[in-house]
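Below is a filled-in request sheet from our internal design queue. Each sheet records the structural input a requester submitted and the sequence that came back. We keep these sheets so that new team members can see what a complete request looks like end to end.

REQUESTER: design group, bay 2
PRIORITY: normal
MODE: inverse folding
CHAIN LENGTH: 631
BACKBONE (tokenized):
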């Protein structure tokens, strides 16, 4: 089931400043079928207040002490009183829902992304590993890049012509707005809040950005008649870029985009004071997407290869390697290495994972079928090199960005692996949800390491609703708590363990169904809190409570991003003592990424990966053994 679709960082506390300049991601102004479909979608509902509060208390049971729970129970009762602050905020939120296209989307865009001051690298932007390609040289790298560009342009034509098939879930159409935000767009740094620009709204850009040896090029990808360049023509243009960017003594200007958002905003303002620099930056921002032609990196053993490439996609390896070969604010950056490694990194404010996965699936199919057909010898202009005038101030900003990035890279602990024992077909054969099965295995793995359960975030799609993004599936539940405690208890009968496992899996599936229907608790609580901020009333005690802080400290931040391609998304943890876990269940195997921070002595990515593998196998063996005993 396509339940968990991409992830976002959740901030524990934020403030919304009236008049803060952001550019909300609104639907691209396109005529015809797109808007007819979008207008038919229901608006995001505001769940009933008492329903959310009851589920909130239930969610807290496995992750807070009895004493804390009793205290919170009293605060909830006060908040829920008839005519009290909770009822007033609920009424305000319902009025907001009646006046806006989506009561959540603008708040969420600001809070989770544009006002978040942490670097987008590791902390927000996911990386994606794609299957290794069968080439080991420059010609192969450029040939694959040419096919990749042509494949993305083919996908873009479906968006431009509104022939992109409308996706559905459970027979209900989904919001397609995110597809109209991922191309020709870019995040722009600001001192207190960033903005997001979609350049396809007006005159559609006709170029992509190519980066090689830290140097940026503008490559026009359409002929004068509007037809896209052929794969052969694109290859020849990439050859020109490669040869004209052989000098490696250039300043890695792109590394500035790896910084803390306030630092990057200051450096950005310094950078664009120069007219030449400003024109070059605008060219990058306006481009349809970016291709990063990466230099070779040190070879590693086969067992480390996936983790090594995952790190390259996530952060580029640091200033010594390919991090300067990026512009991390660009929505889509495809990374193509000389050794056959490839993938992408995407800036998260525009989209969740599924539109990215769908684009990748299309591009990979295109790359398999497209051939390098010799094109007519039409002379093509040399791609334009983007110039940057590097002053001493800009040079100093680059050096600071290098130092800070290298510290982040050293702190990143990532383990990417293929679980080969079975895939989603086995789980489905047991009439269980593969996603829920994996989430309960994660709960078991975490409990075996730490002897407790902690708040777990799994993203659920809200795309059944107009401009819907995500809500949270709470994987640490009463049912999962009962199961993980019983699993290794020798006093428990195996049949009872299987029953408890199925109950935990089914409870997770049931909550998932509630979440995708707009009835989960997290975004509703978020909305009530931010309604209080907007109404300029005192923040209610329920949001200042220890239990609330524990509930929103996600030690496990997780996401399923399924794709037809044998790929894997990866991202960093959202708290210093947490893990980031992403997975793509295939028919007969599963791809996993697990991340943690080396600076936290209590976390270890390889250890959680090991325990997760064990949990998945132990749960399978338990099912098989009990099935056999019935025969």
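RETURNED SEQUENCE:
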């Amino acid at each position: 089931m396509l339940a968990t679709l991409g992830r976002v960082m959740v901030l524990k506390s934020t403030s919304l400043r009236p008049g803060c300049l952001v550019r909300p991601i609104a639907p691209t102004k396109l005529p015809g079928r797109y808007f007819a479909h979008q207008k038919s979608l229901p608006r995001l509902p505001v769940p009933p207040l008492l329903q959310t509060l009851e589920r909130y208390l239930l969610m807290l049971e496995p992750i807070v002490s009895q004493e804390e729970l009793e205290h919170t129970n009293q605060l909830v009762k006060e908040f829920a009183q008839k005519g009290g602050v909770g009822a007033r905020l609920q009424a305000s939120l319902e009025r907001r829902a009646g006046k806006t296209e989506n009561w959540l989307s603008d708040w969420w865009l600001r809070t989770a992304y544009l006002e978040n001051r942490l670097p987008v690298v590791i902390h927000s932007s996911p990386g994606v590993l794609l299957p290794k390609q069968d080439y080991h040289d420059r010609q192969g790298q450029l040939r694959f890049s040419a096919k990749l560009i042509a494949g993305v342009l083919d996908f873009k034509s479906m968006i431009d012509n509104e022939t992109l098939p409308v996706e559905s879930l459970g027979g209900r159409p989904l919001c397609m707005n995110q597809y109209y935000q991922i191309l020709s767009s870019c995040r722009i740094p600001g001192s207190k809040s960033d903005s997001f620009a979609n350049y396809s709204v007006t005159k559609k850009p006709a170029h992509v950005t190519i980066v090689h040896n830290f140097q940026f090029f503008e490559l026009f990808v359409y002929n004068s008649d509007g037809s896209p360049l052929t794969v052969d023509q694109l290859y020849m243009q990439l050859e020109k870029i490669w040869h004209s960017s052989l000098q490696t003594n250039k300043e890695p200007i792109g590394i500035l985009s790896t910084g803390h958002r306030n630092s990057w905003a200051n450096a950005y303002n310094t950078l664009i004071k120069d007219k030449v620099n400003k024109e070059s930056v605008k060219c990058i921002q306006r481009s349809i997407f970016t291709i990063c032609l990466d230099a070779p990196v040190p070879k590693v053993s086969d067992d480390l290869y996936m983790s090594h490439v995952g790190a390259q996609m996530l952060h580029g390896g640091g200033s010594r390697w390919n991090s300067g070969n990026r512009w991390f604010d660009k929505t889509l950056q495809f990374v193509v290495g000389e050794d056959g490694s490839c993938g992408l990194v995407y800036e998260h404010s525009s989209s969740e994972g599924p539109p990215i996965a769908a684009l990748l699936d299309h591009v990979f199919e295109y790359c398999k079928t497209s051939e390098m057909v010799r094109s007519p010898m039409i002379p093509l202009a040399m791609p334009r090199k983007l110039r940057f005038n590097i002053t001493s101030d800009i040079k100093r900003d680059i050096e600071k960005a290098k130092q800070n990035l290298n510290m982040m890279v050293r702190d990143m602990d990532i383990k990417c692996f293929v679980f080969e024992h079975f895939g989603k077909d086995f789980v489905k054969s047991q009439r269980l949800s593969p996603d829920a099965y994996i989430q309960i295995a994660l709960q078991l793995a975490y409990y075996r390491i730490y002897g407790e359960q902690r708040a777990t975030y799994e993203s659920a799609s809200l795309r059944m609703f107009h401009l819907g993004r995500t809500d949270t599936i709470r994987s640490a539940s009463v049912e999962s708590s009962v199961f993980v405690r019983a699993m290794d208890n020798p006093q428990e009968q195996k049949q009872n363990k299987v029953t408890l496992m199925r109950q935990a899996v089914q409870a997770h599936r049931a909550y998932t169904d509630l979440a995708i229907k707009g009835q989960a608790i997290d975004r509703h609580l978020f909305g009530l809190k931010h309604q209080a901020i907007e109404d300029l009333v005192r923040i209610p005690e329920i949001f200042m409570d220890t239990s609330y802080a524990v509930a929103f400290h996600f030690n496990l931040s997780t996401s399923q991003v399924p794709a037809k391609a044998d790929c894997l998304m990866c991202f960093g943890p959202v708290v210093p003592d947490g893990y980031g876990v992403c997975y793509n269940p295939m028919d007969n195997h599963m791809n996993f990424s697990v991340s943690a921070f080396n600076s936290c002595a209590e976390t270890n990515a390889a250890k959680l990966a090991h325990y997760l593998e064990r949990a998945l196998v132990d749960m399978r063996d338990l099912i098989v053994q009990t099935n056999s005993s019935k025969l």
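SHEET NOTES:
- The radius of gyration is 25 Å.
- The CA atoms of residues 247 and 292 lie 16 Å apart.
FILED BY: M.R.
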